[in-house]
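Please check this:
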Amino acid sequence: MMDCSEEVQCVSEETSAQMELKKGMSIFIDILRRADKNDDGKLSFDEFKAYFSDGVLTADELKELFHTIDTHNTDNVDTDELCEYFSQHLCEYENVLAALEDLNMSILKAMDKTKKDYQESTHLEQFVTRFLLKETTNQLHSLQSSLECAMETTAEQTRQEKQGPVKPEVLSIQWSGRRSNRRLQRNSSLSPNNPLLSLVNSGVYEEDGQWIVQVNRLQKLIDRLEQKEIRLEPVEEEVLESKSHILIVQRQLSVLEEELEEFRLALRQYMECACAQTGCLHIAAQRLANESRFILYEFWEHNNVWKNHLQTNYSKTFQRGNVDFLETPELVTTMLVPASWWVLNNN
């Protein structure tokens, strides 16, 4: 593992290697590194959409932004193009990014010195070090809370200004390589009456037999539909009224092996918060056998409840963490089913 001194040196060398980046613009090197899932040094539209989608911009608006940034017309975005575009719109945030760059270097240097000197320090000196680390963390958390509040406010203002409801962004990125069979490991899901069950060694939750049956039935139906073994014909046209159906969201997440433990912790925190969210009917998580791929099923009262959920701090935190945890961008699909099915299966 790279120690702090090596990380400081690496950051310095990487920054100096860029073509005369303005102060504070090195953040876009890090953005491209995290968003570039296939490590080819540039962002495809799928990679761009997975990273920059904020639940407010539509797919068409994201596409327009992508082509605006892609001034070289290569259908890819590189660091120079990111810096060129955002440098024109930074305003006061130019000073913020410059300060963050200095802060990042200062913290890395401080941690490097702590690592070298801590064991040889007196008990009182060690206490001071621990206290300063804790207070630095508190200050950063306070700043983060203020920023998240500003994010929520600006996103809500934009949604109110748009005419009509915004259709939630659906990622349709195909997994690389041969498609795996959709066969779920006999794992468990969260019970609606006990949303805070602990993780077991396999990284999934304790068994709730009723929900396993329902989820597996749904999975078999999806399998059959994809294989075109059956065709569903409507008996008669039915007009859906508001709140006459529920929304099922399926999220496929392919996790990097080295990030599994961190991902499990983040997933548990996300599920605990989501289960407590108004309008969340149930959440189930399963891991595919012999793979580091998870399938997350979310059941919501209706579409608007899910859109509101996407704008919560815990949902955005989970999404930001997935940028580092996932091997490829997650695949999200949604399905509306009659609410009567839910009532029938729970009586």
Observations:
- Residues 11-19, 168-207, 228-242 have pLDDT under 50 and may be disordered.
